[in-house]
Write a structure and sequence with these properties.
Distance between the termini: 19 Å
Shape: globular
CATH superfamily of the largest domain: NADH-ubiquinone oxidoreductase 51kDa subunit, iron-sulphur binding domain
Helix content: 25-40%
CATH class of the largest domain: Mainly Alpha
Strand content: 15-25%
Number of helices: 27
Radius of gyration: 28 Å
Number of domains: 3
CATH topology of the largest domain: de novo design (two linked rop proteins)
Number of strands: 22
CATH architecture of the largest domain: Up-down Bundle
Structural class: alpha/beta
Length: about 650
């Protein structure tokens, strides 16, 4: 565990300069600050709220200069204090590190730095000089001692990193403020380009993303989060024709050796993202899909009223436009194996098979073969591909019970209403507050007429002549929080009751459908959770050259999390095929360090911000939409996009570390 010699963070000072190392108190926040990468100690850390010095031989003037160099580069130039002030500070620090200048220059730097902090118009300028100001306020004598030497300072090893709370919350690390900046400037094509640097499914994500970025948005400390997802959909829809012009096999600047073929298994978000980034790197890519249609869980588990198939299919078609091939109705374990893929010349494999098998409730009398029993993922698949695509009728009865509290459960109940089920009940064993589903999905289901039963748990399935007739339920009581912070639930004695129904849908989770690999023969191992065992840093499985990502590794997660793993898998495969190993990635390490210091950051927005509530997305009337599968949410206008984009406070933060090498 790294020990802080001195530093300050949000005006909280740590000063151990006169103590011996063994006397310095350890802080758990710095348990991961010993090394930047193996054999490379972290000597200092700087951020938008302060700085920490871990070794006595750090030169503060050079550290401050390298930090301010990055700040000056990142300044957008739209307000004078940040644009001009950061450049002046940088030039004065350059003079001091070259051995020229006097301690009086520190007063000038402090004055300008304070002006930048208090008058800049965005989060970058408002935090850019905080670490420098805290250095000047609490440890000026250290700077003066360095200046007194009047000699040039040797350049230290420094890594800088620019991010924002929304970027760090996004699994794909999409540069949200940048694509919003382009919307402010009316450069919608540029905005889409920022998103496409991370994944090809911009319009898809703009419709169904769970919005980790908005949960982290600092605008919530003023009024409401910026409508980041809405803006993503806006630019994706507005510029939808641009993708046809941009993506082709000719756009790839340098193609790899044709022998370096990569096989991607699965056309879900993880597989498509992996194929996309591999193609961008010039690799020949073949994608294998077990079904007759692409999309994985995005196509199987997300109803048409949330994500039209036409939108998803168009974005997946980018893979073939770029020169990749997709082979349908080719199932791993049935039509080919890991061994046969390698025998056919593939140099690496990325497994992105998803979690398409439903989980049973373990209720008495539960039998998947009962007429009127469907797993949530199978139910949605039948609706999407049998009823909607092929027009095959489905008999669902007049009353349905769906068990679960996630987005799949919400999709099931809302889809059931659209299929003509007159009475739809949702059973969830915990309280409404603890439901993992998107709160907007829960509210939409309520508006459409779904009947909720919170703190209720299924105990048995009642059937007659092989057909579901009812569900036995019991009320639950919340207990004390467990180690994860989640409250336990226990049955309430004597609270049993029966809910008659024609159909029951367990939507309590999915799991990997085993049989696609043989651990002994293929060398791909599974962990105790039934998912593929991989190394966190590389996503390589226990079989050399075989990588995996998405739900088959993490368990059921979100579309954006799967795409992030697809991008990581492509990067690691590129390293593996180029260098024979997966390299250290400094940006990932910086992101870890930023996450470690987040609990130390004081909340609140220091600069006054005018209250402006987010744009309201138009929706179909609940009485109308529950009868059809037409997309519920409507796109915003150009004027609304401009308004929403200007609500962004551009909360960029600059971070840097000084290391040994």
């Amino acid at each position: 565990m790294a020990k802080v010699i001195f530093g300050a963070w949000d005006n909280n000072v740590i000063d151990n300069r006169r103590k011996k190392v063994f006397e310095i108190e350890e802080h758990p926040e710095f348990s991961d600050f010993d090394e930047f990468n193996p054999g490379n100690p972290i000597k200092a850390f700087f951020g938008g709220h302060g700085f920490f010095i871990f070794e006595k031989n750090v030169n503060l003037l050079d550290a401050a200069l390298q930090y301010m160099e990055r700040v000056a580069t990142e300044s957008c130039g739209k307000c004078t204090p940040c644009r001009v002030g950061t450049q002046i500070i940088k030039s004065k620090l350059e003079a001091l590190t070259s051995g020229q200048g006097t301690p009086d220059m520190l007063d000038e730097i402090e004055s300008i730095a304070e002006h930048v902090r208090t008058t800049s118009l965005c989060g970058l300028g408002q935090t850019a000089t905080v670490s420098l100001l805290e250095m000047l306020k609490f440890f000026r004598e250290e700077l003066e001692a360095e200046i007194a030497k009047a000699e040039p300072v040797a350049r230290q090893h420094c890594t800088t990193y620019v991010s924002a709370p929304c970027i760090e919350a996004c699994p794909s690390k999409v540069d949200v403020p940048r694509y919003i900046d382009y919307i402010k400037d009316g450069k919608f094509t540029h905005s889409l380009g920022v998103i496409l640097q991370k994944y090809p499914m911009a319009a898809t994500c703009g419709r169904v993303c769970v919005r980790f970025c908005e949960m982290a948005c600092r605008r919530t400390q003023v009024d409401e989060a910026v409508g980041i997802k809405v803006l993503k959909r806006f630019v994706a829809d507005h510029e939808q024709d641009m993708t046809n012009e941009w993506f082709s096999s000719y756009m790839i600047p340098e193609k790899k050796d044709p022998d370096l073929k990569v096989a991607v298994i699965g056309t879900g978000p993880a597989g498509i993202a992996a194929a996309y980034h591999l193609l961008l790197r010039g690799y020949p890519v073949d994608v294998y899909e077990a079904k007759s249609v692409p999309g994985g869980m995005a196509a199987t588990g997300i109803p048409e009223y949330r994500l039209p198939n036409s939108v998803l299919n168009k974005e997946i078609s980018i893979i073939e436009t770029m020169g990749g091939q997709i082979f349908y109705n080719r199932k791993m374990g049935r039509d080919f194996t890991v061994k046969s893929l390698f025998s056919n010349g593939y140099k690496s494999i990325f497994l992105a098979i998803g979690t398409h098998k439903g989980k049973m409730m373990r209720a008495a009398g539960e039998d998947p073969n009962l007429d009127g029993y469907d797993f949530g993922v199978d139910f949605l698949l039948r609706i999407n591909h049998d009823y909607i695509d092929k027009g095959i009728p489905m008999k669902l009865g007049e009353k349905m019970v769906v068990v679960g509290g996630g987005n799949v459960a919400m999709d099931c109940v809302r889809s059931a209403l659209r299929m003509g089920v007159k009475e739809v009940h949702l059973v969830y064993r915990r309280s409404r507050r603890e439901m993992p589903a998107d709160h907007e999905e829960v509210e939409a289901a309520e508006k459409e007429g779904v009947i909720f039963h919170f703190l209720t748990h299924p105990t048995k399935i009642l059937s007659e002549d092989g057909k579901v007739k009812g569900v036995g339920l019991i009320e639950m009581a919340l207990g004390e929080p467990d180690e994860s912070g989640r409250r336990s639930v226990t049955p309430v004695d004597g609270s049993d009751f029966v809910l008659e129904t024609d159909h029951v849908i367990p939507a309590i989770g999915q799991q990997v459908e085993l049989g696609f690999v043989t651990p002994d023969e293929d060398g791909v191992a599974f962990n105790s959770w039934g998912t593929i065992k991989v190394r966190d840093d590389s996503l390589m499985s226990t079989r050399k050259g075989v990588f995996a990502g998405g739900d088959c590794v993490t368990g059921p997660a979100t579309l954006v999390q799967a795409m992030a793993q697809g991008e990581q898998g492509a990067r690691c495969i590129d390293d593996y095929l180029t260098y024979g190993r997966v390299r250290f990635f400094p940006k990932d390490r910086m992101s870890q360090l930023v996450a470690d210091v987040q609990p130390m950051i004081a909340s609140g927005v220091n600069i006054p911000v005018k209250h402006e509530y987010r744009v309201k997305v138009r929706e179909l009337d609940p009485d109308v939409r529950k009868q059809i599968f037409e997309e519920v949410e409507k796109p915003i206008s150009v004027e609304e996009a401009y308004h929403e984009a200007h609500r962004c406070m551009r909360c960029y933060r600059v971070y840097s570390v000084i290391t040994e090498q």
